[in-house]
């Protein structure tokens, strides 16, 4: 059945950001029948732009309804699809959707999203509201950086997603600016944000040596500069799915590392990152 013009435009725009292939990552084993391809789909920073809206010179683009249908179509087309969310789904004050509905759309992604990272705006309405949001969904919302007074993670720090016999170790960190961005009264009592470069090596070692993952992916809510710094300081991350900076950049390997960064671009659900891992 033919799609309407708006649907065709939206579907094309959703894969506009990047279509990338990363082949034979270090430590990834070949399957018995040859390489297994995993498709990773990633969004972040839609900041409560739930409805179709004006973006990048066009009217009526994006919107959560189109995004959800796109995810469903892609999962139906490939059982080896992994769907990731980098956070900042809410935004206090603007647009009005956020103040009225906050995380009302989160449950719509049950059975679609595999894991979500904690963004700074998820805490705009206080920790109690965030916890209600988290309790409303089946997929994990992760962050290794948010820790209590004993430096123990408050949220699940990492998770494992398996597709086609390939194990992905997925973890999330917060940005170096979170201490300034998020007031203490919006966090759990006594909570602070740990240095990502300090805690990442422990997580990567656990994922690779204990969990025996085939690839390590970081989806945390950090600036592009933080992501580059992390990749250069900490080996063992195969892919960083960038957030927070709203930056558009072509796929490239970070010099001096084995890490490939993919970065999100605008506060619009028209942008979606698509990456293929051949394992």
Overview of this structure, please?
It is a single chain. By secondary structure, the protein is an alpha/beta fold. The protein has one domain (5-278): Metallo-dependent phosphatases (Purple Acid Phosphatase, chain A, domain 2). The chain is built from 7 helices and 15 strands. The strands form 4 sheets. It has a 6-stranded mixed β-sheet, with helices on one face. The longest helix has 15 residues, at 196-210. The chain is globular, with a radius of gyration of 18 Å. 43% of the residues are buried.
CATH class: Alpha Beta
Q: Give the distance, in angstroms, between the N- and C-terminal Cα atoms.
A: 34 Å
CATH topology: Purple Acid Phosphatase, chain A, domain 2
Beta content: 15-25%
How many DSSP-defined strands? Answer: 15
List keywords for this structure.
single chain; five-stranded mixed β-sheet; 23% strand; 7 helices; 279 residues; disordered N terminus; six-stranded mixed β-sheet; alpha/beta; Purple Acid Phosphatase, chain A, domain 2
How is this structure best summarized?
This protein is an alpha/beta fold. The protein has 7 helices and 15 strands.
What's the SSE blueprint?
Elements (H helix, E strand, L loop, with lengths): L4 H10 L3 E6 L13 E7 L9 E3 L2 E4 L2 H14 L3 E5 L10 H6 L13 E3 L9 H9 L5 E2 L3 E2 L10 E6 L2 E6 L6 H4 L10 E2 L2 H15 L4 E4 L5 H10 L5 E4 L17 E4 L9 E6 L1
Parallel strand pairs: 1-15, 2-5, 5-6, 6-7, 10-12, 12-13, 13-14
Antiparallel strand pairs: 2-15, 3-4, 8-11, 9-10
């Amino acid at each position: 059945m033919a799609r309407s013009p708006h649907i065709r435009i939206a579907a094309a725009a959703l894969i506009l950001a990047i279509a990338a292939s990363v082949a034979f990552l270090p430590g990834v084993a070949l399957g018995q029948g040859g390489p297994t391809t995993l498709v990773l789909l990633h969004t972040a920073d839609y900041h409560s732009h739930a409805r179709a809206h004006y973006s990048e010179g066009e009217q009526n683009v994006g919107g959560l309804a189109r995004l959800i249908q796109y995810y469903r179509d892609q999962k139906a087309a490939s059982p080896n699809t992994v769907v990731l969310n980098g956070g900042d789904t809410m935004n206090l004050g603007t647009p009005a959707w956020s103040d009225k509905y906050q995380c009302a759309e989160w449950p719509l992604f049950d059975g679609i999203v595999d894991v979500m990272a904690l963004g700074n705006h998820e805490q705009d309405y206080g920790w109690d509201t965030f916890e209600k949001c988290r309790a409303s969904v089946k997929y994990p919302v992760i962050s290794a950086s948010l820790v209590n007074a004993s430096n123990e993670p408050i949220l699940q720090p990492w998770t494992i997603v398996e597709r086609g016999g390939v194990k992905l170790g997925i973890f999330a960190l917060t940005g170096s600016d979170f201490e300034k961005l998020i007031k203490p009264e919006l966090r759990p009592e006594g909570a602070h944000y740990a240095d990502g470069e300090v805690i990442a090596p422990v997580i990567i070692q656990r994922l690779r040596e204990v969990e025996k993952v085939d690839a390590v992916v970081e989806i945390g809510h950090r600036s592009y500069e933080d992501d580059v710094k992390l990749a250069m300081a900490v080996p063992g991350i195969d892919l960083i799915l960038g957030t927070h900076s709203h930056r558009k950049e072509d796929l490239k390997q970070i010099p001096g590392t084995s890490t490939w960064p993919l970065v999100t671009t605008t506060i619009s659900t028209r942008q979606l990152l698509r990456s293929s891992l051949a394992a």
